[in-house]
Write a structure and sequence with these properties.
The structure holds two protein chains of two kinds. Chain A is mostly helical. Chain A has helices at 2-28, 32-39, 46-56, 62-74, 88-123, 128-141, 145-162, 180-214, 217-224, 229-241, 243-257, 261-266, 272-282, 285-313. In chain A, α1 (2-28) runs antiparallel to α14 (285-313), α5 (88-123) packs antiparallel against α11 (243-257) and α6 packs across α8. Chain B has a domain at 46-63 and 119-265 and 296-340: MetI-like fold, CATH 1.10.3720. Chain B is built from 14 helices and no strands. Chain B is globular. Classes of the chains: A mainly alpha, B mainly alpha. The interface between A and B is large, with 63 and 52 residues.
């Protein structure tokens, strides 16, 4: 176990080195002076651009800057952003709770929607209920997140508000410590936007895996020895069918925690995704690098968690 | 092809789609050998949903190819601004069906239908183009990794793993922001981050295929590595490639639309469904002109839905049982249905049909 974790840690370090290097290469592929000019203000004189470059450390060579960045990273320090010279750590500390709230809430919703529909579909194959389940899945699977988001804004926000029912606010984020009710209210639309698209994935996943499981011989045996349908489905079928769901869940949470870019953008939530997006538009290299590092870390860590949980769920799998 | 043929034969026996073979006069009939592709086509043709989706996909391709002719027919080029007919006196875009604007006009008085037609071109170009590149690269890398195994496999496998732990959207955005957005760049960037999915899948298949007798036979006949990989093994991967290509195209179309929506894909004034939706959302324009927002959304959803349904139908028709598919095979579904419904329901169904 500890060897497994150690190997994963080494892998994470390798991934982080490569991924930050690629980020740096992308940003320096043009002219480093360009980067400085973007932060020197409008119509800056050549001297001002030079000063800015020195202030941002852009006057040093590529490898020096990169090395300097890695050194900071080892100490858990993401550096200062180019735009306002604010410590990036504090910006992340502000943005992360927003993304986390969005992701955790929608995970709960998509599991609550996806798994029951998937089970219903699989236990009534080729019936109307199965059709309904599959149709639900395919519809939302084909619905890009931003399309669902803007349609929600149009119908549930704008038309309802026009009709005098201002149930949903348009945008923004209220922290849970400030007002739990407002927190939920502001996140409802983003939650459902993200959750419905994801729920479709899970409906399909659990339907497929449960149908496969229910076709196994041991299910027939369980039925043959007289166990009732419910016990067979839930104790023998669903339990075994959940493993691919666990894998997918790990990957999804890992990917989304680093920023649900589209959902955050549509609903104006100032999470990690928005932080990264804005930084890309302004060319704020250290912020982009920070979000990239977080994203890769979440993905690798969640993959590791998945492997551990998998071994725990399925005794046939051993971690080596 | 032996793997595919055996699988199809089995499924065929189970579904028995040719009723005449069991009719009394069957002995007199001449037996005609059917290729696996013929069998798959026969099964696909019976799948009504898949056939409708295929129709929609063909229609989309036609729309994209005939875009200039179609817009000429409408009389509104995609980027022409009709400030007198397209906008009301107070500058509000006209709605669907007014002044010859079938789907209405946008905030600059441009015809939404014409722009959607040209958006089809962009979507298909990026969706199909990036999928083709991803498929080609993924196939070659997967073949090499799976065939040689050992260190080559480890290195290529790790490389694919690392690429897959990149936050794709963020990197795509960063690259596009750095080098300036263009249709070609968007296409290449999407391919860059999607080929590892194909690569992994192909690798898994090749690992089991390379142990089969036909590879040994080819080897005994003196075939070299390249010949075995690309002439002997590769044809067995075509079914897999067709299915995944059909399912990857809509994903890539959505990625392009998302990039354009975020402002880093296809740049205005060139119309793309993504940047049309984005334009409709900025400044809450959709509140005065819903058609500006809704129609591009519909185009996007219909396209992805058609490709997804067609992909599902193809997977059922080819039934190759590749890997851990999310769609269970028809045989499995029947078995599960029988077990779950119990005998009584089965008999009732038999009586009804």
């Amino acid at each position: 176990m500890s060897r497994f974790l150690l190997r994963r840690l080494v892998y994470l370090v390798i991934v982080l080195v490569i991924i930050t290097l690629v980020t740096y290469v992308i940003f320096f592929a043009g002219n480093a002076n360009n980067l400085a000019a973007r932060f020197a203000g409008r119509d800056a004189s050549p001297q001002a651009i030079k000063d800015t470059a020195i202030r941002l450390g852009l006057n040093h060579g590529f490898w020096y800057q990169y090395w300097h960045y890695l050194k900071g990273l080892v100490h858990g320090n993401f550096g200062y952003d180019f735009q306002n010279a604010v410590p990036i750590n504090s910006e992340i500390a502000r943005a992360f709770p927003v993304t986390a709230s969005l992701v955790i809430g929608s995970v709960v919703i998509w599991l609550l929607i996806g798994i029951p529909i998937g089970i219903m579909s699989a236990t009534h194959p080729r019936t109307v209920r199965d059709r309904a389940g599959t149709t639900f899945a395919l519809t939302f699977l084909s619905m890009p997140t931003f399309v669902l988001g803007v349609l929600f804004l149009l119908v549930l926000y704008y038309y309802l508000t026009q009709a005098g029912l201002d149930w949903f606010p348009a945008a923004g984020y209220v922290s849970i410590s400030q007002s739990p009710g407002q927190w939920v209210d502001h996140l409802l639309l983003p939650w459902f936007t993200l959750a419905l698209v994801q729920a479709a994935v899970y409906t399909r996943l659990i339907r497929g895996s449960l149908l496969d499981t229910l076709g196994e011989d041991y299910i027939r045996t369980a039925r043959a020895k007289g166990l009732n349908r419910r016990t067979v489905i839930y104790k023998h079928g669903v339990r075994a069918a959940l493993t691919p769901v666990v894998t997918q869940l790990g990957i999804d949470i890992g990917t989304l925690l680093a920023g649900a870019f589209v959902t955050e953008h549509v609903f104006g939530l100032t999470g990690l995704g928005q932080l990264g997006l804005n930084a890309i538009f302004t060319g704020d290299l250290p912020v982009v690098a920070a979000v990239v590092v977080l994203a890769a870390t979440f993905i690798v860590v969640m993959n590791t968690v998945v492997d551990v949980v998998y071994a725990w769920l399925d005794p046939r799998v051993r971690i080596a | 092809m032996s793997l595919l043929r055996a699988d199809l034969g089995e499924a065929e026996a189970a579904t028995s789609i040719e009723p005449e073979s069991s009719s009394p006069g069957a002995q007199a009939q001449e037996f005609v050998g059917r290729t696996p592709w013929r069998l798959a086509w026969a099964r696909l043709r019976k799948d009504r949903v898949a056939m409708v989706s295929l129709g929609v996909v063909i229609l989309l391709v036609l729309v994209a190819l005939l875009a200039p002719a179609l817009t000429a027919l409408i009389g509104h080029p995609p980027n022409a601004q009709y400030t007198t007919t397209g906008l009301s006196l107070s500058g509000i875009p006209v709605g669907p069906g007014h002044n010859g604007f079938l789907l209405g006009a946008d905030d600059q008085g441009r015809d939404i239908l014409s722009r959607i037609i040209y958006g089809t071109q962009v979507s298909l170009e990026v969706g199909v183009g990036s999928t083709a590149i991803a498929l080609a690269v993924g196939m070659v890398v997967g073949l090499v990794a799976g065939f040689y195994g050992g260190l080559v496999d480890t290195l290529l496998g790790r490389f694919m793993d690392i690429l897959l732990s990149f936050p794709i959207l963020l990197f795509a955005l960063a690259i596009v922001a750095r080098f300036g957005p263009s249709l070609e760049l968007v296409l290449i960037v999407i391919a860059l981050f999607t080929w590892p999915y194909i690569g992994r899948l192909v690798r898994g298949q090749v690992i089991s295929l390379r142990e089969r007798e036909f590879v040994e036979a080819a080897r005994a006949l003196g075939a070299g590595d390249l010949r075995i990989m690309f002439v002997e093994i590769a044809p067995n991967l075509i079914a897999l490639a067709v299915i995944y290509a059909t399912l990857l195209i809509p994903v890539n179309i959505v990625t392009e639309a998302t990039l354009s929506f975020l402002g880093l894909g296809v740049q205005p004034p060139t119309a793309s469904w993504g940047n049309m939706i984005s334009e409709a959302q900025t400044g809450d324009l959709f509140t005065v002109a819903w058609w500006f927002l809704v129609f591009p959304c519909v185009a996007l959803v219909v396209t992805t839905l058609a490709f997804n349904l067609l992909g599902d139908g193809l997977r059922d028709a080819l039934d190759p049982r590749y890997g851990r598919s999310q769609i269970p095979t028809p045989t499995r579904v029947r078995r599960a249905a029988r077990l779950m419904r119990g005998k009584a329901a089965d008999e009732a169904k038999a009586g009804a049909s």
